[in-house]
Specification:
Elements: H1 2-13, E1 35-41, E2 46-51, E3 66-72, H2 77-87, H3 91-98, E4 105-108, E5 113-122, E6 128-137, E7 141-146, H4 154-162, H5 172-207, H6 214-244, H7 252-317, H8 333-354
Parallel strand pairs: 3-7
Antiparallel strand pairs: 1-2, 1-3, 4-5, 5-6, 6-7
Helix pairs in contact: 2-3, 5-6, 5-7, 6-7, 7-8
């Protein structure tokens, strides 16, 4: 138990005593290679490249086209720092990029906006994985920073390549919207899977087919819902601020799209609240089921004990070692005693049955 608690606090200890703006990677995915992918496009043309060096990305900073530069590998702290130098990012922004325990938020700067959100997905062991995605919106570019390869942005890449929708005709703020929207849309699949798990457990409990370790499953689901809730709820504040922001990088025509993202987040949040209540109800239902089973066992034992009380009383009386018991010398006393005991037994069973205690 102490070792687990120690591991949980290690990421926070990395920042203790550090100078503000110091880059310290707090994640766990340190074995991945640094990958830099760029999309440079306008209405008529598109260039997709894999960049070998950070410096190659600087040429896209002041172009007339829109550029999306995606960087995978937050543990390459020196390269992240060089990106910040090339694009004029504040040291506190760079610190938040490599701090993977950052809460979803938005920071406004004169020449750019900085957004942090959480990307959720199920890993191969069917556990919820949370990966931090940081986005920097500039005049004609969007920078995205991820821990490792693999994300939910493939649909955005296809829309850029094929020129689907408005993405090739609008500015970088619309690209920011599409990336956030892709993350939010994936929340629906996460919530749907959680809902299916909860409904399956609920069905098993009602049908009396619950597994022995169902309490463990309920606890795991509760932790998953809390993780999802912590990742999604703060993002509503971020989108709400973008809607109300007065920044030259956010055009009025794009505000409507962000408002749609906010509606999606509200829907997801409502579902999470419903599932949260359901999981608490499942725990109560499980405890009630256990209590009912215990009550059934105790009822059977009580009935058995009640039936044998008069029989034991009779056997105790005639088991006493006295010579002057009148019935001892009667010829059929043994059979009469048995008959009385059987009659009492049957009468009590009939009475319990009539009362519907059996």
């Amino acid at each position: 138990m102490k070792k687990t608690a120690k591991k949980r606090t290690q990421n926070y200890k990395k920042h203790v005593g550090q100078v503000p703006g110091t880059l310290v990677y707090t994640g766990k995915k340190s074995g991945n290679k640094l990958q830099i992918q760029s999309f440079d496009y306008n209405k008529d043309t598109i260039k997709e490249n894999i960049l070998q060096h950070i410096e190659n990305a600087v040429s896209y900073k002041d172009t007339d086209t829109v550029t999306w530069i995606n960087i995978n590998g937050l543990h390459y702290v020196e390269e992240i720092e060089r990106v910040g130098e090339q694009f004029g990012l504040h040291p506190l922004v760079l610190e938040d990029i490599v701090n993977t325990s950052q809460r979803p938020k938005i920071d406004e700067y004169e020449c750019y906006l900085f957004v942090v959100l959480k990307m959720l997905y199920y890993d191969k062991d069917e556990n919820i994985a949370i990966e931090q995605v940081s986005l920097v919106l500039g005049k004609n570019y969007v920078l995205t920073f991820q821990e490792s390869e693999g994300d939910v942005f493939d649909i955005v890449r296809d829309r850029i390549r094929l020129g689907k929708g408005r993405i090739r005709t609008l500015k970088s703020d619309y690209l920011l919207y599409t990336l956030i929207d892709a993350v939010v849309d994936h929340y629906f699949s996460i919530v749907e899977i959680l809902g299916n798990k909860i409904e399956d457990l609920e069905t098993d409990l009602f049908a009396g087919q619950a597994k022995e370790n169902i309490n463990v499953e309920v606890q795991q689901l509760k932790r998953e819902i809390l993780k999802v809730r912590r990742s999604i709820f703060p993002l509503r504040e971020v989108i709400n601020r973008i809607e109300k922001i007065e920044h030259p990088l956010i055009y009025k025509r794009t505000i409507t799209y962000f408002r749609d993202v906010y509606d999606h987040l509200s829907q997801v949040s409502e579902n999470i609240d419903i599932y949260r209540e359901m999981i608490w109800s499942l725990m109560d239902m499980y405890m009630t089921t256990i209590s009912n089973k215990m009550n059934e066992v105790m009822k059977v034992l009580t009935i058995i004990a009640t039936i044998f009380i008069p029989l034991t009383f009779i056997a105790g009386i005639y088991g006493m070692n006295f010579d002057n018991i009148p019935e001892l010398h009667f010829k059929y006393s043994y059979y009469v005693l048995w008959g009385i005991m059987i009659l009492i037994f049957v009468a009590m069973l009939f009475y319990f049955k009539r009362k519907k205690w059996l």
